[in-house]
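Complex record, two chains
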Amino acid sequence: MKSGGLIYQQDVNPGLNKLTSNDYLVLAGTLHGVHAIGSQLNSMMGPRENKSFDNSNNTLIGTERAQNPNTNRSGVQSIESDLFNLYLFQTLTGYKFILITSPNTVVHNVQESKAFGRGDLNKQYSAVNELFKQVYLCFSDYVMKDPFYSLEMPIKSGLFDSKVRAMVQ
Amino acid sequence: MPNSELFALTYGSTVAQLCRDFNNDYQEVNQQLDKMGYNIGLRLIEEFLAKTGARRCQTFKETSEVIAKIGFKIFLNIQPIVGNWSQDGKSFSLILTENPLAEFVELPVAQDPNVAKELWYSQILCGVLRGALHMVQLDVDVWFTKDVLRGDDQTEIKLKLLKILKDEVPAGED
């Protein structure tokens, strides 16, 4: 999704009920707004100290070690409910990637072992982040390098489809 | 990846064909190359970010380092030298000690002396930089000031920051 406009959507779980394509557009637009509002609210609460997040490129320049490309720091990052989990990833250029999953896999784990609950959640976050990173790489290859793709237009790439599907499964 | 000589050859044929198509109007050729580069830059920035996870640069100085030490390294496997900073810190030069695009090139000055005065053979690089930086909300001017192909002592690209497109910075960063 770019600037609130949905440019790609795929169901990877064929068993689920589908929304209409219009609903997906509305969902994307709404999330775009909610994300921005979240970011506004966050900034009103004053600057946060986040030592774990290195907000500079010094490490990158010094060691050439890749960092996480997610730049979604102050906006809505995830929504968790009894029925689904939703995750938001944003690139420096403003593309948003959204992942909607069933809640069961992980919330289950958390309930089973409360003591390690946080750890399990973190584990899922890092799994989700890893997936986003892979999808972004795939996007930068199979969408951006397709010479016939026009920027900000809907993505209709069979190659990208199959790569994304393969990644999620 | 195909080898770099094929890449240099492909680029060379493109430039030569443009020169023919535009009847050796080199200004026009420069412009076309710049445009092609710009369109590449708009796209290439995504691969750069996906692979490196680079953060938004806080200063133009930082931008220059990321371009030279990371960007050129990844895509062309060279490391230009950053230098010639202006007083206000808004423009600098990238000095290319080698240029993979021009490895086999000699400008045909004997046939047309204008070519060494007007054609910037590697102009596409300027376009790429301009396009890529535009996508991270930096409006810059990029141009060649020197090229060894023209008989200069070094190859030098100038970058000048015009404006930071603050309104276009996506919400949600710190």
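Note: Chain B has a mean pLDDT of 94.
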